[in-house]
Design brief:
mainly alpha
Length: about 40
């Protein structure tokens, strides 16, 4: 969650744009999904 707050802060400061924010959030979502899948027993 801290990563997301940092990204939003960077966007709010004008250091990254909305498109970049969305791309990075998507990458975080994918990484979190992969992590959860690795923890789940099959």
């Amino acid at each position: 969650m801290e990563y997301r707050r940092t990204l939003i802060g960077l966007r709010d400061q004008g250091r990254i744009g909305d498109d970049t924010l969305r791309k990075l959030e998507r990458e975080l979502d994918l990484s979190e999904a992969r992590y959860q899948a690795a923890l789940s027993p099959e």
